Amino acid sequence: MRRRRLLDDTGQTLPIYIWVTGILLFVAFAFFAFAQGASARNGAQSAADAAALAAAQDARDELVDGLGASIGEGDEWLDWLGGDEFTGKGAEGAADALASENDSSVIGFGPAEVNGYPGFRAKVETNYTVGDSIIPGTENQHARAEATAIIKPRCDIAPSADPEEAVEFDCDGGGSFEIDPDDFDPDDLPDASVLFSVHLAD
Question: What is d(CA 95, CA 134) in angstroms, rounded to the nearest whole number?
C-alpha cells in the first residue's frame, strides 16, 4: 500500500516539477530579453550623448576661430566671446561622425537652447537591433535616444571695459588672461576649453 502511494505521489510531483521548470525558464528568457533591450538603449544613449557633444565642440572651435579673427575689428569680438556668433555649419557633420563611431545614425538634429545657452540636440537610432528574444519583434527593433549639449562662456569682463583697449578676463576655475587688440596674436588665446565649456544639458 505504501509503495503504491509513493508511486502515486511521484506521478503527481513530476508534472508540477515540469511546470515550475517551464516557468523559471520563461522568466529567465524574459529577463534576458529585457537585458538585451536595456543594453541597446544604453548604446543608443551613449551615441546620442557623443553626437550632441561633438556638435557643440565643433561650434566651440568655430567660436574660438571667429574670436581670434575679429579681435582688432571694433567691438564685434565681444559677441564671439559671449558665444553668440557661431553658425554651426560643421556641427551636424561632427554629430554624424560620432554617431557612426558608436554604430548608430543621426535621425534628428537641430539647434537648441537651455537656460539661455546655445547648443544642439541630436536624436539617434542604433544600426543594430535588440536581437532575437521571446518577445516578438525585437529582432527588427532598433533603439533610439536623444541628447542636448550646450556651450557656455567661461570668462567675464567688467561692463566698463573698452574693447579697443587691453582687456583682462577672469575665467571659471581662477584663470585669467589679457587681450590687447593693438598687440594681438591669435596664438595668444588660451585653449578653447578655457574660454567655453561644453556639456550635456540636464
Answer: 34
Cα(153)–Cα(198) distance, rounded to whole angstroms?
9
Instruction: For 177-200, write each residue's pLDDT tens digit.
Output: 777 777 777 777 778 888 889 999
What DSSP character marks residue 24?
Answer: H
Distance CA 75, CA 73 (A): 7
Amino acid at 107: I
Half-sphere exposure of 175 (CA within 13 A, CB side): 13
Residue 142 · residue 126 · CB < 8 Å: yes
> Which amino acid belongs to residue 173?
G
Helix (H) or strand (E) holding 169: strand 167-171
Residue ranges covered by each domain of the chain = 41-200
Q: Per this entry, what is the length of the chain?
A: 202
Asked if 194 and 171 count as a contact pair (C-beta separation under 8 A), the reply is: yes
Distance CA 178, CA 112 (A): 31
Cα separation, 178 vs 155, in Å, equals 11
- Specify the amino acid at residue 172: D
Cell numbers standing for residue 107: 535621425
Amino acid at 181: P
Show the cell assigned to 154: 567661461
For 30-74, write each residue's pLDDT tens digit.
555 555 556 678 788 899 999 999 999 999 998 888 887 777 666
* C-alpha distance from residue 34 to each of 40, 44, 85 (Å): 10, 15, 45
